[in-house]
Amino acid sequence: MQRVAHAILSLSVLALWGCYEGGERRLVAGDSFAEFGSESVDTSAGESADSGGSMGPDIGDGSTSGDGSTSGDPSTSGDPSTSGDPSTSGDPSTSGDPSTSGDPSTSGDPSTSGDPSTSGDPSTSGDTGTVPPEDGDRIARDISLTTVSINQAVEVDVGDGNQLIPVSSRNGRIIQDRDALFRARWQVQPGFGTRSLEARLTINVGGTTTKSYLDTRTVSSTGSANPGSYNGTFRWAVDGADIQPGTTFSVGIYEVDDSYATTPLPSPLPRLPSSGSSSLGVDSGNYEVDVVLVPIRWVYGSNDRTPNLNATNVETIRRTIWERNPAATINISVRSQPVLWNNAISLSGILQALSETKNQDNAPNGTYYEGLADFGCFAVNGSSCSNYGTTGLGYVASANSWASDQRASISVWYDPQSSAETLTHELGHNQGMNHAPCGGASGSDPSFPYSGGAIGVYGHKLDSTAIYSPSSTYDYMGYCDPSWISDWSWERIATRNGLFTTAAPLPPRDGILMQGIIDDDGTEHWIRLEGTLPLDAASPDTFVELWGGDDVVTRLPAYEHELGEGDARVIVVQLPEELEDEHALEGITAAVLETSEVRTPLGLDLLP
Q1: What is the mean pLDDT of residues 140-159?
Q2: For residue 396, how many C-alpha atoms fall within 13 Å in the half-sphere facing its CB?
Q3: Cis omega before residue 482 (within 30°)?
Q4: pLDDT digits 0-9 by tens, 548-596
Q5: What percentage of the chain reaches a pLDDT higher than 70?
Q6: Cα separation of 45 and 65, whole Å?
Q7: How are beta strands 118-119 and 209-219 bridged, if at all?
Q8: 137 CB-near residues (< 8 Å, 6+ apart)
Q9: d(CA 241, CA 61)
Q10: Phi and psi at residue 283, in whole multiples of 5°?
Q11: Mean pLDDT for the stretch of residues 149-174
Q12: What's the sign of the alpha-carbon dihedral 94, 99, 102, 104?
């Protein structure tokens, strides 16, 4: 699918939050997920939860040490599998998702075809059913622990052998309250014989609650871990409630057969750390994303179309955003009143209308207005429906509060999953991201670190068995498939997400901004917004001159930015106080955009 995801504009708007309880149409997701085959055990009780030999939703964190509560158990609260779960309606895994299209995790994946490193699924491979005592006698012989990682969408190594990797040296941050897949790789040593081993992840939350997750599997004497396969490593799915700034952890590989207790201990021990536990290094930032879905009612000719944003489709969009975003929670709502567009198709024009709507709604600075328009086709080419072309357009918004109204985008509504993926791409632009260099995407970021726009590290879709290849899966901010998020994009979007909370203040509204999009063909779309453009936000050597007859009336510093596609540009200027009234502009007869390189006449549709 070609995505043409553009640009940058600014507006703020009151979100009319929707709800599925309490009279509102609002979905708030904490996104806990089912565990696939790993077990969570209360070490004080000394008993394990029985997985029953199933790859199904075994929630392994129900037992705790200290209070016996099951608070935060996804099986009872907020579990997407019980409310609008996309796995049963519009699941990304069944439509356009890299886990089912060309991804090595499902095509020739060792996890599904002859993986030599394991024999059978760990959930069915001889779990002892108890938590063994923490002693050196049972530490596994003739095997090394090579890497321990945590994956909340992108793989972040936290341990190299039995040495902890400092937070400052990691490729990505760990998000508190977000679910995670822990993985441990191994390498067998000479003399190792094929046998069952037990890997154990022990987590302590806040110094009071200790949980152990067990993974018992048969390890072959001829192989090492295969990180390209979900079943190719030891792994444990952990609920976000246990991923906290104060969480400590340890990982070790142990013998199931006690007869090995009489043989010499290995050096180094297959354990991280070699003794005790270490801080997981979870970031303490608040990572939430507030999204308002804005339906566009398109009334033109014989058309009167509005996208179907029912609860199931909204959940598909929310889930798709969450899977690819460094956030614990995606707060999503639907604006109760659609935005009317009664002209020919114009994504730039609709985008400006969305920016204006956010401004008029007086929405919080950190809220994203994501529009959806149903034109009865998959994409648009100019003002016409098409089977190829542009499927979305979004401002590449500055993080500064003056650009609040540029946190907006428009996506073509065609089917829930493809539209959700387009919207997530456009949201990435709103979060400050340019294109990744893949598939001919224009305006790609020259600092993107991986050749061909690949994701660079293993990716993982939470609540699934999908593992995405570092080299043959591509960053979702490009135009290549299959796509996922890279660790490079993860870090940059996390920084942006950390700036905004649901209580983010509104920018000052003590002036009038003129904001325009100039399309590739020269078509202009201008709107007036309440707001303030700081002088230091203006682009260097860039001005808009307003003329009255033969005289320059004023020369205004301008913010200019290319959109994400082609030569389209966004221009923002602040009108002086004497020109804020619309009638004050009646004497303006011409306008010119001046940069250090060129002077470009502007149309007068910005004037009354």
Answers
A1: 97
A2: 22
A3: yes
A4: 888 999 999 999 987 766 678 899 999 999 888 877 777 788 889 888 8
A5: 75
A6: 8
A7: antiparallel
A8: 261
A9: 9
A10: -65, 140
A11: 97
A12: negative
Strand partners, 592: 545, 601
Q: In which residue are the tokens 């387009």 written?
A: 422
Lookup: tokens for 241: 């409630």
Phi, psi of 217, deg, nearest 5: -150, 160
Q: Under a CB-based contact definition with an 8 Å cutoff, are residues 411 and 426 in contact?
A: yes
CA angle 291, 293, 298 (to 5 degrees): 155
Which tokens belong to 482? 């299959």
**Calpha distance 425→324 (Å, rounded):** 10
Q: Write 157-162 long-range contacts (CB < 8 A, 24+).
A: 158/280, 158/281, 159/251, 159/272, 159/273, 161/268, 161/272, 162/268, 162/269, 162/270, 162/271, 162/272, 162/273, 162/274
B/e letters for 340-364, b = 16+ CB within 10 Å, e = fewer, are ebeeebbbbbbbbbbbbbbbebebb
Confidence of residue 28 (pLDDT cuts 50, 70, 90): very low
- The CA distance from 103 to 607, in Å, is 52
Q: Which two structure tokens, joined as six digits, stand for 279? A: 């801080």
Most confident of 206-210, 266-270, 302-306, 594-598: 302-306
Q: Which helix (H) or strand (E) holds 318?
A: helix 311-324
- Tell me the per-residue pLDDT of 226-285, one tens digit each, with 9 for 90 and over: 999 999 999 999 999 999 999 999 999 999 988 887 788 888 999 999 989 999 999 999
Q: What tokens were used for 27?
A: 């979905």
d(C-alpha 521, C-alpha 544), whole Å: 20
Two tokens at 236?
A: 């444990």
Query: Tokens 């394991």 correspond to what residue?
Result: 118
HSE-up of residue 70 (Cα within 13 Å, Cβ side):
11
State both tokens at 281. 């290094």
Distances (CA, A) of 121 to 37, 38, 91: 8, 10, 24
- In the block, which residue shows the tokens 């060129």? 598
Please state the φ and ψ torsions of residue 230, each to the nearest 5 degrees: -60, -40
Residue at 55: amino acid letter: M
Is 200 a residue whose pLDDT tops 90? yes
For residue 489, the surrounding DSSP H or E stretch is: helix 487-499
Phi and psi at residue 518, to the nearest 5°: -110, 110
d(CA 344, CA 299): 9
Q: For residue 35, is pLDDT > 60? A: no
pTM, two decimals, is 0.80
